[in-house]
Amino acid sequence: MKPLLANKTPELLTRIDNAIDGELYTVTMNSPLNFTIELSVQDKNRGYDWINIAFEVDGVSDAHLIEDDKLSLVDMSEGVSILFEGDTCAVGVGNYNSMEAIKSAGLYLIGTTLKYEERPFSTN
Questions:
Q1: Regions of the chain where pLDDT drops below 70
Q2: What is the DSSP letter of 115?
Q3: Which H or E run includes 10?
Q4: What distance in Å separates the CA atoms of residue 117 and residue 96, rounded to the nearest whole number?
Q5: Kind of pairing, strands 88-93 and 34-43?
Q6: pTM higher than the cut 0.85
Q7: Which one of 55, 79, 91, 104 has the fewest CB atoms closer than 10 angstroms to its CB?
Q8: SS3 for 60?
Q9: How far apart are CA 40 and CA 118, in angstroms?
Q10: How far is it, in rounded angstroms, from Cα 17 to Cα 11?
Q11: What was the pLDDT predicted at 122?
């Protein structure tokens, strides 16, 4: 996994079109304070081919999660938001512009660091 820095986030989100109309693949608890969200998205750099991308949030201080069997039902029409404010970062499903707003998302993770990794495309 590679660290995702605030200044590189817009470039990555543009490349995957903010994961609009993507699919939530998995949410994994690696430890009580470390979670990974994996999405299937289209990658502009690969001619809009599908890839999976995983976001790992460490130092999780707040979260709203859903059951695994409900992941495929999550509306991804607004994609994902990745936010950085001070020493905090967040990943949430939907279009949000602040940490307070992202807390109304159906699925979100707020923590201290964020990493990402491109993975081969796979489906549920």
A1: 124
A2: E
A3: helix 9-15
A4: 22
A5: unpaired
A6: yes
A7: 104
A8: coil
A9: 10
A10: 10
A11: 82
